[in-house]
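Amino Acid Chain and Its Fold in Token Form
===========================================
What this section holds: a protein sequence and its matching fold, both as plain text.
Structure line: whole-number tokens from a learned vocabulary of local backbone shapes, matched to residues.
Purpose: to set a sequence beside its fold so the mapping can be learned.
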Amino acid sequence: MDVKTSIGFLVKNKKGDFDYASVMNLLSHETRFDDVRWKEGLRLLKQSYSNFLKGYQYDFEKQNSEGKFERIELNFSAL
């Protein structure tokens, strides 16, 4: 599996949420690539996981220079 194939695990369902099983499968490949972007992406994915009631949600945030967390929008069309 290459990085592009791995990103396929980040498909959202009809409600706009990431599929829990697919994300966990993606995280199981954490050591497969040495690319710093890959490792940072999975770190953010793990950091963003939350279990709210019986649903799962991923909000991506990164600490700024002041130590505060700022939300990262996953808008791939803007890349």
In short: The CA atoms of residues 45 and 79 lie 18 Å apart. The chain has one domain: 3-78. The first strand starts at residue 49 and ends at 52. The radius of gyration is 13 Å.
